[in-house]
Amino acid sequence: MIVYGHEPDGATIVKMEAGQRLEPGMTLTSIDDSLLTCALLESQPGQLWRVKFESAERLTQALDRYGRRIDETIHLDPTYWRTTPEAYRSVYAEKPGSLEIPSAGLHFSEELLNRIADKGVELAYITLHVGATEILAVRHIGTEEVEDHNVRSEFFEVGDESAAKINRALAEKRRIVAVGTTVMRTLESLAVRNEPKAAIRPQAAWTDLYIYPGFQFKVVDALLTNLHRPRSSHIVLTAAFAGKDLVMRSYSEILENGGFEFDMFGDSMLIL
Length: 272
Known about the structure:
Strand content: 15-25%
Strand order of the largest sheet: 1-2-5-4-3
Distance between the termini: 41 Å
Largest sheet: 5 strands, antiparallel
Helix content: 25-40%
């Protein structure tokens, strides 16, 4: 079983091994931890299931004790996660809970952040619980029209201090740079019902905002994002922000020159 992330109603998205005979209503019990049970709620495409763990706290403990990192975009030795866990978190990560990495943040070191701050750039940190939106089957747009695609909800938290910094930048007409598509999605979720550049308020919530060409951006002025695969919700967001023509020209140049890596631990682009 691969655990991907949580849903607003408390359900968890998991992927089951092919060939397992499963039906909604079944309850699975962990061999390693008999106190952890998993009730199957609903099957979904791509061997995905919505399930309910009892309890959520024991799930976190079990993942920490028995789990190992599995990534669909890279191939690493199975022991790598245990021996190098710091590779899977940004240097500024603080709160546990996210089951995936907001990977654009991996490009920063403490030294680089200090250099950025020394230049007068103000840093605002938010909490992102990245999960099911990073599954390749979920990121991939299988519908004929990109507008008909659905993205999953993710939890975020923007505290008082960070909201104040963002509002100060908005009021002073300073550039706001989102580090990653999930940050972009979060910040624009705060302002989706506001007038452009209006103040946002701190909040902890779930967002199912889907950004595609035609979206009106109200907060973010620049985006740092990793390179994304074709027909993914991430590249559609990038095209919505930068313009389809510019993104297509950029990716054509990237593919023509070669040597670039996509997705997690890959290369990135800064769109100003």
